[in-house]
Amino acid sequence: MIETYIAWWVYTVLAVPQGPLGAVLEFFIYDTGKIFLLLVTIIFVISFLRTFFPVETTKRLISKLPPGVGNVLAALLGIVTPFCSCSAVPLFIGFVRGGIPLGVTFSFLIASPMINEVALVMLAGLFGWKIALIYIGTGLLIAIVAGLVIGALKLESSVEGFVFGKEGPSLAEVKPSWKERAKTAWGETTDILYKVWLYVLVAIAIGAFIHGYVPEDFFVQYLGKGQWYSVPLATLLGVPLYSNAAGIIPIISALFEKGVPLGTALAFMMAVTALSFPEFVILRKVLKPRLLGAFIAVVSLGIMITGYVFNAVSLS
Amino acid sequence: MTIQILGSGCAKCNLLEKTTREAIAELGLSASVEKISDFGTIAAMGVMTTPALGVNGVIRSSGKVLTKDQVKALLAV
What we know:
The structure holds 2 protein chains of 2 kinds.
Chain A: H1 2-13, H2 20-50, H3 55-63, H4 69-80, H5 88-97, H6 102-114, H7 117-127, H8 129-152, H9 178-213, H10 220-223, H11 230-238, H12 245-257, H13 262-274, H14 277-284, H15 289-313
Chain B: E1 2-6, H1 11-27, E2 32-36, H2 39-44, E3 52-55, E4 58-62, H3 68-76
Parallel strand pairs in B: 1-2
Antiparallel strand pairs in B: 1-3, 3-4
Helix pairs in contact in B: 1-3
């Protein structure tokens, strides 16, 4: 219905001739409308939920659990706990001083940026809910397993000394009213939209261009399932593209359409959100190189395994 | 009265500092603003999300860039 309306606009009102340019325009208008509608609704809903899970609550919930169960809950709470990378250091110290095991803390730190609201909207809008759910599921699994592995490595001695110390006082719990929650959530929504809208527009435009002009199956020969290096390459390429899910997913979705396999696409998205150079620099303040290296290695490995598994599954 | 702004110097922390200074000026308070960016100290004050705002060493808000009215409400008590 909406597609017909857009087509009418493109071909009748704007009088664009049938062909790749028309396809690009149709695609661009449709995706832009869909993505922005989804961004507003989903970010608002998630931000509203988040007002119920301040970090202090999350910490209290996790600290009562044995490791294992703790890793699972930490990863799950990582999704709903509001978190920005500038708070990674105080949060890490707070968790460690609160007696939360290192591995459990990492499960939280890995899940939180990887499964973020912007990535979810872009995935659901451009790849569909099924792939968005696969992303959430495998993302959680990576966070849980990576946390367990880091915990088992017993690298507590590779945490910078100042991190350990007396736990700070518990902050007074604030119970906002429903109106205040809605206000906070709306503030978050406009904040995020303001930050990402340009990236989203540019990325959808690039995606639309690929959709209209790049031949079908173009990428199969370079980044197809047959090329073993496509997964590690995608992971590596994702690292410098820091937390820019908004600017990357529309392009990945267009590449996916032109023959890049699902596993490679997933690995790329996960590397973009979970591994980033500025985050390494921030975490270096609390982690000695050995532990930082272990964190990067374990998460990269998890992402690459996910990539290979999904490339293998979609082969059959 | 002393007011603490806790944060590592990110954009949000600077914004909170600016808002707080404006709120102090508008309320006509004689208060000194102190910036705390040392992570050990931030953690020792119980803060896990920055920016945070303390009044006389007690944390009153964390993880939020408060509006001027919100800061005023916290300072007026």
